[in-house]
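Summary for the funding panel

The consortium committed to producing paired sequence-structure records for every protein in the target list. Below we show the first two records in order, beginning with the earlier of the two.
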Amino acid sequence: MSDANGDPRLVSTVTRGAPVLTMEEAERSGPAPAMPRTVWALGLISLFMDLSSEIIHALLPLFLTVTLGVGVATVGLIDGIAESTAAISRVFSGWVSDRIGRRKPLILLGYGLAALSKPLFPLAGSAATVLAARFADRIGKGIRGAPRDALIADLTPPAIMGRAFGLRQAMDTVGAFAGPLLAVGLMLLFANDIRSVFWVAIIPAALAVLAVIVGVGDKPRDESAAPRPPIALADLSRLPASFWRVTALGILFTLARFSEAFLILKATGAGLPLAFAPLVLVAMNLVYSAGAYPAGALADSRPARALLLWGLALLVAADAALAAASGLGLVFLGTLLWGGHMAMTQGLLSKLVADAAPADLRASAFGLFNLATGIFMFAASLTAGLLWQYVGPSATFAAGGLFAAAAFLLLLAARPGRSAG
């Protein structure tokens, strides 16, 4: 996509890559191939690590402001630095993984670094220590992300690629809703002692690292391939136009969706007690987890464009409900619709990146895609925060809904690719 002014090539990529089957063709083709064992292992690992991280993230703003006594601006600064670090490190880990032709070492390094950062949270006596812990945790996330997604694409038959990404996303999101739920229970058990809750979070992180060691295989090594030089920016020229169109599409979606932190702020502003604030993430991720695998299965047999349009429609509805909400009923309705949007689109975008990128540059492609969307997520969240502070919460969600509606109309107006039929 060269620009966002209605270029008819906008969605040509979303109907390319793995062939889209009709129902009759799918039935004649026989049963789907078995899901690779490593994909199941990566899903379980994501579940454990997200469980650990979300126990901490659901309580970290309270820990910083109440226990350590820092201002809200510092909370935002720490989160912004952490997420930017993750986005940048994804690019380099992807390039390195493609250069060495291996995935598992970087996956293990990423999860190991994240696990090592967890004890710093309960030990923290200042915001600087929390920043160091978040910095290490997000570097670990960045290091593992691109090689992990590339390994899924390496090992999965094309006929079930959407299912594979949907499965990993679904299992990851199980941890994302179980973590905040467990955090609420642990707070009640430990009489609001946040440090004690943080110590418990170390356990699932350690299990994630153990599962990488014993459960993850690597891509087959091509012994005939000549050694490749270190990172070369010239490789960018080998990424096809279809990849850059998918990246532009990912940016468009990201600009229409900001941080889920604003869902929590909206709920507490509507009367949800602070101790139960993590339940907002529980509700969102429950829908996200339940819908991610079915959406991935649909991506294997339906045009991607239609699924992306449904995802944007859900986001428009979510923002409308949240903008209009004055009570918790509409807030939670909007939150559930938000989770439906995530389920419909996130695994699908990963599949489109895998379809578009050359096999030997998959990790690099995932790294670049995540860098681009990560940067624009920061911009979207910053804009949302400014609107919230200077205009009001309803303006934040109204603006998000307008942008999502514009993206919907642009995607609807663009002509499908030839393979869409």
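The next record, for a separate protein in the list, is shown here:
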Amino acid sequence: MTGLRGTGSFDWTLENVFLPERRSMPHTNTPLDNRWRRWPGVTYSLPVNCWIGPHYSAVITGIARAGIDALIELAGKKTPRGRTGLLRESPQVQDAIGRADAMLNAGRAYRSAMITELWTTVAAGNKTTTEQRARCSLAAIYARDNARQAMDLMYQHGGSTSFKSESRLAQCWRDLHVVAQTVTLSPEWYPHGGRVYLGMVPG
């Protein structure tokens, strides 16, 4: 694939290896919650919404942070063609880095707050509500959207360096966009949350 090269990701296959059922996890048509409850502790009592979405979302926000750091490093040593000053002296670059940091942190804060709310509810021995679970899913997608916008800003302001395959900005941009395409972070989850708030079945 075009992305995930920066992380060294690859595919692998095992053949003729026994896998106990207790070490397996179904991915379709079976509630993951039922499988997780066999282990003790708050972690395994959390609703699936704390895992499906937020786990990929955390990867994306981490990559976006690396992208911001990559542009900061580049801006301190690159003099764009036709200019005399370093890239960091550009007001547009300064603005982009400030905006990207704010966007990224807003998404991360929302996601952390929702996961913390669900954790606190479960740790107190209570059941989570549909609204809480919907907000957790929405927070994951919102963090993904913010990270994507932040990374796009960094890529844009990296200039011609951004499209070189060996560039850290290029690696971060490609990797982030691959993870952002996963179904668990699809924009289709926004209307699911909207239906919950409107008193409808989420679907």
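Regarding this second record: The longest helix spans residues 91-123. The chain has one domain: 51-197.
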